[in-house]
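Let us practice reading a record.
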Amino acid sequence: MAMQLAYYRQFRHVPATYESASTKAFARGRTETSRSVSAHSAAWCKAMVDHPETTGLHAKAELLRQSIANQSQFTAQCAKGSGIDRHLLGLEFALQEGEERHALFEDQVFTGSRHWKLSTSQISDPILAAYGWGEVVDDGFGVAYRIENNALHFNVVSQRMGSARLCQYLADALMDMRFLLTNAHKQPHEIMAEVDAVANVLTSIKLLSSSSSQPTTPTETPAPQPESRFRGPFAEAPVAHAMVDGLDRLPSNEVICALEARLSRFVKESLSWALPSTS
């Protein structure tokens, strides 16, 4: 779902998405195509990007959960031999020279549905430090990913379609999904309080960074340094504590950039999700 949302943000349409499903339960079984796009996932991407202010958090979260459930169901069906793409590919290759092709193979909807602009798969075996492959169509992306206990790794490849940008959208999508699923039950004023906490942290960091960059005279006595640059009354909310934990290890300019990006996400999207009714 994160890959679909990232692609939609970059290109504003839902792509045909290939996800490999294992058929090793069968003799000589290899893979089948799990078509992870559904009506729910398309509606979710549009709700997240096109008009985020018109759909509440709860409604977006339910669309996301249903999209994930659909994708899991599709993959399970493929693993049981109920996929369609390998079967249809076999029929297409079985055509003899001069034999008439079925109209299905010329249908624009069918051919478009297997023009895999997102070709994805995951191998999470710890023996692999990294892996990947190229795109399968000229105007698409090859996205290999790994799921670890505390990390997600993506390898994005394309023919100058904007791989770096898609990576950024992927990171944004994952953060947005986390925010959506952990905050869908909250009231708007609770989310706004967390946004205010982030804004206060950012303001305080900028003030600290500005004051620390000014030269001191020999007569000035440096003020005692607190245990952390970022602890204080402006960092009381849980979301602020979560962000503060690792900030001491970063230079001030990196801290400011990180917090500005996070605040931008809250203000431009997350906050607007909270404003409509969540019923």
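A brief commentary: Residues 61 and 181 are 6 Å apart (CA to CA).
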